[in-house]
Structure formats: structure tokens, C-alpha cells
Design goal:
745 residues, alpha/beta, Beta-Lactamase, Heat Shock Protein 90, five-stranded antiparallel beta sheet, elongated
């Protein structure tokens, strides 16, 4: 109540002042009358006076009261306005301070006059440092010029700018990407006094946008790279297809030794070039994350022997022993990607062969860890070569890195092999590393994870019988590692092996065993021992009438054609590196008294021979734009008694099918005017109306991931990669057109 009365009293203050002024006027007027000529006294005039005087005083009183009330009203309004303005400013400041974005006010020259806390954070400065600071000091020249032009334009036109992108530099030197608005700030007279606006920190968003843009750019670059590699592969593989194909066909004819040697060199060079192309493509697929491993069952021991035989000739040419050993407890049936495992093994063994001039190369495998379903295998490739210095051992696993520049000049290679092997091993859940000293040889280790095959059958347990149990065997080999491995293998089959490194010692052991009544049943002899070699021992055995032992000769690829096995009385042969299943077959053949002579000499670089077709002659349409490939495919199919029509592109293939009848189409993928995919789609659309399906085999030199799937999706029935293998193509044709009774061939 007292507060309300006080407010009321204060609010009527000017009225009381008016009354007070009127009273003062009254007193002053009465005081002045003392000096007037009239005889009216002060008090008389103050409390009395005539009627006119009283009215004058009342009018003055009313005027003072009126003006006092008006003045009070005006003051009250101003006070309320000031209070409202103060509340508005406080509310405005609370809003400005509470927003997450920065707020700034600057004068016309760009000096900061007000800013909120988020703006301080963006500038990375304290309030004292920011107040009065030139805003342009936080920008580089490019951004300062841009913002200065915007300020001038806003001042000139009065039109606010809602989006201004610029970069501010914080006190610590870090960059802030911001989006700002700029509007003109005016005083009460409408005069421009500065600029104000909201400023948002979009640094993280810009980074995300840059990352997204970088991702899109990288993906586009990857697509371009893949397209380039596919085209490059096509352009190189296409002529290689005709080179390799024609050489294979010529090698089937009668040739002089010099001609065959020359063609072998051509074939070797072609496969070397193809290997380089494959390395580049594999690395690019790995780099792009487009290489996936297959899941295929395979037999580990036979797989290793078959893989090493690919490179055995090169090792034997240098006089190297190429050996592999799987620990007795190692599993045999695995599920994984044998093609990629072979790639790693051949890469490491190939390098070992390249950098080793004498001695041996040993590939050993043992179990690192095994569960009920999986096994982690440890592979090691040990050589007796030049070795690698410590400081170079890490770098060789990276792209295009070799021990030094002279390595590439002396031994060749792209520097991609070990980098690809490292990535493949990583995909197989393992790792790769090296142990080596310069001049002391090297051992490359890698691990790989595989699934155990539940349906794997132990080929040895399935084929061993009582005849092999207790069989006494003499092993003659001058390589200690080979002797140990073969002895270990024979013992695992419950045989009784003895070993020696010398042919003279072997003769003594044979004679002694015969004299003691415990003769050897079998003898395994290495044909390539030092003088006297294994052949002389076999020849001596044949001359001994009282020694009745079955002879198995262990050969290298290079010596198969140099030996008269009939003359030496050899019952069976195996080729190094010795495959366990081949050894077991050779033992059983020898024990059964059968003859197992080596196959005829073959070209070392040709992996398969062109088989003879089975079935009826076909009418085949070939769509191929390369003249050399046209000639190769034509001669190959003509040799198989097929009728062939050649067209140069997909459009002509579609026209040919609409005018004539064919049994099969061989369709190149990349052709001018209309490629193989487009042609196949059009052919399949036409077949929807006719109801007649014609098989189409794609021929592609792209060799990239998804090529086969892409061909099948387009409507093709099968896929043959270039260079086209004659055997592969023949198998594909005969799979689509199996032989029937009554066929001419």
C-alpha cells in the first residue's frame, strides 16, 4: 500500500510543483505590492485583494497546474518509453548472446563495436581484444577484398545481403569457413553508421562437403582408371591373342628344332608381356577394392606340386633344386582361392629363382593355428640367393620398389609382384614378412587363412593297400632336403626307407641287403646327381643278375627327352618337384610291374595342346573387329571342321543373324559402331519374337572384375577371356553342343 502511494505521489509530482509555483507566484505578487503606491499591505494583498486579482491568481494557478500535469504526462511517457527500450535492449542482448551463431556490429570503416560470445569463439580472441578491432584484420587479402565490396554495395544500395561466404583466420592461425549476412545499421536520424549481421561457422560442413567432393572425384577417377585399364587390356591382349593362338597352331606342325626353339621364345615373350599386364590389372583391382577371393575346394599338396612345376623348368635350367614340403600334420583338403594363392607362391618362388644362381629353393608349409573349421597356414620360401640388405627389406613390399635400380636392369620385373602379394595375403587373412641377409639368401614368410573342407578325402588313405606296408625303399639323392622329405613321406605310408647321397654308397647298400636276405623292393634315384649320376646307377643295377629291385627315376623336365628308359630297365618315372600322389602312383606301377614311361617332349611354354573336336560340324558366326584375330579364329574353327562367317562389328552380326541361320555366335565385346553387349541385347529381343535361342560365347580382353557377370547379364551364354585358349574355347563349344550318336567326329 505504501509502495502504491509512493508511486502515485511520484507520478503526481509535477502537479504539486504546479501548485507550488502558483503559490510562489502569489507570494511574489503580494510582495511586489509593498512597493506599489497603493496602501494595500503585503498580508492584505496575500489573503485578500479585489475580485480581479483573485481571478488572475486562479488563472495563473490553473495554468501552472495544467502545464505541470502536461509536463508530468510527458515525463511519464518518456520514462515508460525508456524503460520499454531498456527492457527491449536487455531482451535483444539476451537473444543475441543466446544464439549459437555469431553476431557482429561494425562501424563504416569495419571496426567492431559489438559482438556476442559465439563471435568471440569464431575469432578466437577475447572481448577486450575484439572491441574496436578491424574486422578485416581477421581475413586474408582475397577475402578482405570480397567483404569490402559487399559492405560498399550494401551501403550504396541499402539492400541487405543474406549469404556471404568467406574465410576468417583465428588468432591461432586456423581457418574458419563462415556464412554471413550483412545489413546496414542506421541511427535515429536515418543516417548510416555501420553494418551488422549474423555469422555462422560452417567449417565442419565445408570439410564434409570437401570430403564428399573428394570421394566423388576419387570415384570418378577410379572409374576412368578402370575404363582406361580395360581399354588398355583390350588393346594389348587383342594382338597377343592372335600371336599366342597362331604360335600354338604352328607348334602342332612338324618343325625343326631351331624353328621350335624360336617359337618357344616368341611364346615365352608373349606370356611375359601378358604377366606384366595381369600384374598391372591386379594391382589396380586391389587398389580400387574390386578384387574378391573365391571359395573353391582344392588339395594343398597336389596344388603346390602343380604350381611349382610351372616354374620348375626355369629353376632346373639354372641347376637349382626346387623342393616343397608340407608338415605331416598339415591338412590337405582346403577351401579358398587357389588361383590367388598360386599367384603369391609363384611370385615368391619366381623371385627366389631369379635371384638364386646355385643351391636350392624350398617351399615349406606348416600349421600356425587350427580350429574345427579353419586353419592358418604358415608358408615359407627359402632360397640360397643374393639376399637383401636390412635397410631395403621393408620397402620392397611397396609399389614399384626393388632393392636398387640395377635390380630391374639386371633381373627385370615391374616392382609390382611383392606389392600385389602383400595385398593378396592381407585379403586371405594373413601377413607377409622377410628374413634375409645380404649374400646369405632370403626367406619370405606369409600366412593365409583357409576353411577346412569337410568332404575332403585323403587320396593316400584311399589308395594305399597292404602291398605298400613294409616295402623296403632305397632313396638316392644328393640333395639333403629332398632325401629328408621323401623319407618322411614314405614313412607316413608305413614303408621302410633308407637314404644315401652317393651312387657308390647305394651300390654297397644294395649288395649288402641282397647278401643279408633282406633286399630292397624299390629304389628311387635322382637322375641329375653329380658324377657318377643316377643314370649310371640304373645302368649298373640292370647288369646285376642277383639284384632284383624296381627302379623309379626322379627326373627334371629338361632331362625327360634325353634318356632311353627301356635300355636302363626303369619301371616308373616321376618329375621334380615330386608330387606325393605322383610318387604313390609311380610306386604302385613299379610294384605291379607295369611300365610308366615319360610323356613325349613338349614345349615348355605351351600349357596345353589343341585337342581334337568331338561332335558335329557347326555353322558359326564370329563378330570380331581385329583382322589378325579374325584370321586366327577362322583357321582354328576351320581346323575343327566348322563353317565360319566373319563380321567386323555387332551391327553386322545382327544383320547376318536376320538373314541366315547359325548354330553359334562368338561375340567380341569391344567393337566399333555396335559393341558385343548391345548386339546381344538386340539379338535376344529379336528371339523373343521368333522363339529360337542361339548360344553366344563372349570373347573379352578386358579381364576386369565383373566381366563374366556383365556378359551373362547381357544375355550371353558363356565367356572366354583373351588371349583365347584353343583348349578352353573347344571345351566351351563342346559343352554347349555335346556329342550325340551319329555325329561324324
Amino acid at each position: 500500500m505504501k509502495i502504491e502511494l509512493k508511486k502515485h505521489f511520484i507520478s503526481e509530482k509535477m502537479v504539486f510543483i504546479g501548485f507550488g509555483l502558483a503559490a510562489i507566484y502569489w507570494i511574489l505578487e503580494s510582495f511586489l505590492y509593498i512597493f506599489s503606491p497603493s496602501q494595500v499591505g503585503f498580508f492584505e494583498w496575500l489573503f485578500g485583494g479585489n475580485v480581479g486579482g483573485i481571478w488572475t491568481r486562479l488563472i495563473v494557478l490553473c495554468l501552472f497546474v495544467f502545464f505541470g500535469s502536461h509536463a508530468q504526462y510527458t515525463l511519464d511517457r518518456r520514462k515508460r518509453a525508456e524503460e520499454a527500450l531498456q527492457k527491449s535492449e536487455e531482451k535483444y542482448r539476451r537473444i543475441i548472446e543466446s544464439i549459437e551463431d555469431g553476431y557482429y556490429e561494425v562501424d563504416l570503416t569495419g571496426n567492431l563495436t559489438f559482438l556476442n560470445d559465439p563471435m568471440l569463439i569464431i575469432l578466437g580472441r577475447s572481448r577486450d581484444e575484439c572491441m574496436g578491432m578491424d574486422l578485416f584484420d581477421s581475413m586474408d587479402e582475397e577475402n578482405a577484398v570480397k567483404v569490402f565490396k559487399i559492405f560498399n554495395n550494401v551501403q550504396r544500395t541499402g539492400i541487405a545481403v543474406n549469404t556471404l561466404d568467406c574465410v576468417l583466420t583465428a588468432q591461432d592461425g586456423s581457418k574458419r569457413h563462415v556464412e554471413a549476412s550483412v545489413s546496414l545499421k542506421k541511427n535515429s536520424k536515418g543516417e548510416s553508421i555501420g553494418f551488422m549481421g549474423i555469422l555462422r561457422n560452417v567449417t565442419e560442413r565445408k570439410k564434409a562437403e570437401e570430403l564428399q567432393q573428394a570421394k566423388l572425384t576419387a570415384e570418378a577417377a577410379s572409374r576412368s582408371k578402370s575404363e582406361f585399364l580395360a581399354n588398355m587390356s583390350h588393346e594389348i591382349r587383342t594382338p597377343l591373342n592372335s600371336i599366342i593362338g597362331f604360335v600354338e597352331m604352328i607348334l602342332e606342325t612338324d618343325l625343326t628344332p631351331e624353328q621350335r626353339e624360336s617359337l618357344d621364345i616368341v611364346m615365352s615373350s608373349s606370356y611375359a608381356l601378358l604377366s606384366v599386364i595381369n600384374d598391372i590389372l591386379d594391382f589396380s583391382k586391389i587398389e580400387a577394392g574390386k578384387l574378391e577371393l573365391e571359395e573353391t575346394p582344392f588339395n594343398l599338396r597336389d596344388f603346390l606340386a602343380d604350381s611349382l612345376k610351372i616354374i620348375a623348368a626355369k629353376a632346373h635350367q639354372k641347376g637349382l633344386d626346387l623342393i616343397y614340403r608340407v608338415a605331416p600334420d598339415g591338412p590337405d583338403g582346403l577351401i579358398g582361392d587357389p588361383a590367388r594363392l598360386r599367384q603369391v607362391v609363384l611370385n615368391l618362388v619366381g623371385n627366389a629363382t631369379k635371384f638364386t644362381d646355385k643351391g636350392e629353393i624350398l617351399l615349406s608349409v606348416h600349421v600356425e593355428h587350427q580350429t574345427d573349421n579353419e586353419v592358418l597356414l604358415h608358408f615359407a620360401v627359402k632360397d640360397t640367393g643374393i639376399g637383401i640388405p636390412k635397410e631395403k627389406q621393408e620397402s620392397i613390399f611397396f609399389v614399384f620398389q626393388q632393392v636398387d635400380g640395377s635390380t630391374s636392369r639386371r633381373f627385370g620385373g615391374t616392382g609390382l609382384g611383392l606389392a600385389i602379394s602383400r595385398q593378396l595375403v592381407k585379403l586371405m587373412g594373413g601377413r607377409i614378412w622377410l628374413e634375409s641377409e645380404a649374400g646369405q639368401g632370403s626367406t619370405f614368410h606369409f600366412t593365409a587363412r583357409f576353411t577346412l573342407s569337410p568332404d575332403a578325402e585323403d587320396v593316400f588313405k584311399a589308395t594305399l593297400d597292404d602291398r605298400t606296408h613294409g616295402v623296403k625303399v632305397l632313396v638316392v639323392d644328393d640333395n639333403a632336403t629332398y632325401r629328408h622329405i621323401i623319407q618322411e613321406t614314405l614313412k607316413s605310408w608305413n614303408m621302410l626307407p633308407l637314404v644315401t647321397s652317393e651312387t657308390g654308397e647305394a651300390r654297397k647298400m644294395l649288395i649288402q641287403a641282397q647278401e643279408t636276405g633282406s633286399p630292397f623292393d624299390l629304389i628311387l634315384i635322382d637322375s641329375s646327381m653329380s658324377d657318377p649320376d643316377g643314370l649310371s646307377l640304373a645302368r649298373w643295377i640292370k647288369t646285376q643278375e642277383n639284384i632284383n629291385v624296381k627302379v623309379i627315376m626322379m627326373l627334371t623336365v629338361l632331362r625327360r627327352s634325353q634318356i632311353d628308359f627301356q635300355e636302363l630297365g626303369i619301371q616308373s618315372t616321376i618329375t621334380k618337384p615330386v608330387r606325393s600322389s605322383d610318387l604313390l602312383d609311380a610306386i604302385q606301377i613299379a610294384l605291379d610291374g607295369l611300365k610308366s614311361l615319360p610323356e613325349p617332349e613338349v614345349s615348355l611354354k605351351v600349357q596345353d595342346r589343341i585337342s581334337e573336336p568331338v561332335g558335329r560340324p557347326l555353322r558359326i558366326l564370329v563378330a570380331e573387329d581385329n583382322l589378325f584375330n579374325q584370321k586366327f579364329i577362322f583357321r582354328l574353327l576351320e581346323r575343327w571342321k566348322h563353317q565360319v562367317v566373319i563380321v567386323a562389328n555387332g551391327r553386322l552380326a545382327v544383320e547376318a543373324l536376320s538373314q541366315d541361320k547359325f548354330d553359334l555366335v562368338l561375340m567380341d565385346v569391344q567393337m566399333p559402331e555396335m559393341d558385343g553387349f548391345e548386339a546381344t541385347v538386340e539379338i535376344r529381343e529379336r528371339e523373343k519374337r521368333t522363339g529360337n535361342h542361339i548360344p553366344i560365347i563372349a570373347m573379352t580382353a578386358h579381364a576386369m572384375k565383373g566381366d563374366r557377370e556383365h556378359c551373362i547379364e547381357a544375355g550371353m551364354d558363356a565367356h572366354v577371356p583373351k588371349p583365347v585358349s584353343a583348349t578352353h574355347l573347344l571345351e566351351m563349344i563342346q559343352k554347349l553342343f555335346p556329342a550325340e550318336p551319329g555325329d561324324p567326329f
